[in-house]
From TrEMBL:
GO terms of biological process kind: vacuolar acidification
GO cellular component: RAVE complex
Superkingdom: Eukaryota
Gene: Dmxl2
Organism (species): Pardalotus punctatus (spotted pardalote)
Protein name listed in UniProt: DMXL2 protein
Length: 185
């Protein structure tokens, strides 16, 4: 799966030089993040205008429409994570009201899909990681802060400053004992 500054999203197969599917054409908002769900049957694309779109991967048309697309943040959606069986999605981004980390239910109508919004990260959240064993979200922000959320209780557990500049990367070890942050500095 490839995403570009021009907003295009294309899927390729290892043994074929040409694309299998073009999910989005050039001319859309820049792609900020893309993932497959754990089952590999869906892919999601976040963009610079605050949208998250999700497609079924096994499309037969060359230019399919997403089965779900909604604006998660008013300015940008920078990252997201599929939670559980991909019916729950967490997003990070920047919104005018500082609700910069959100939980969404993909099985209900778009007007009711927001489950919870966390007010955190002045100037926006840049990255997000989901720790399934502990049911935690870890997010990084533009000012170098890290927030850890308990998604079962829907509350912020910890906030601390890890860097002097924007957090650009988060990695979680497989046993979920540690996480590592990387910044713009």
């Amino acid at each position: 799966l490839t995403g570009a500054q021009d907003g295009s999203v294309r899927m390729f197969e290892w043994t074929r030089p040409q694309q299998l599917v073009c999910f989005r054409q050039a001319g859309n908002a820049r792609v900020t993040r893309m993932y497959f769900n754990a089952q590999g049957n869906k892919c999601g694309v976040a963009d610079g205008e605050g949208f998250l779109s999700i497609w079924q991967v096994n499309q037969t048309t060359s230019n399919p429409k997403p089965y779900l697309s909604w604006q998660c943040h008013s300015k940008t959606t920078s990252d997201f994570a599929f939670i559980t069986s991909s019916s729950l999605v967490a997003t990070s981004g920047q919104s005018n009201d500082n609700r910069n980390v959100c939980l969404w239910d993909t099985l209900v109508s778009s007007g009711n899909s927001l489950i919870h919004a966390f007010t955190c990260h002045d100037h926006g959240a840049t990255v997000l990681q989901y720790a399934p064993k502990h049911q935690l979200l870890v997010s990084g922000g533009r000012k170098g802060y890290i927030c850890i959320f308990d998604i079962r209780q829907r509350q912020i557990l910890f906030t601390f400053q890890a860097h002097e500049s924007a957090v650009k990367a988060l990695a979680l070890d497989p046993s979920e004992d540690y996480f590592v942050t990387g910044s713009a500095e």
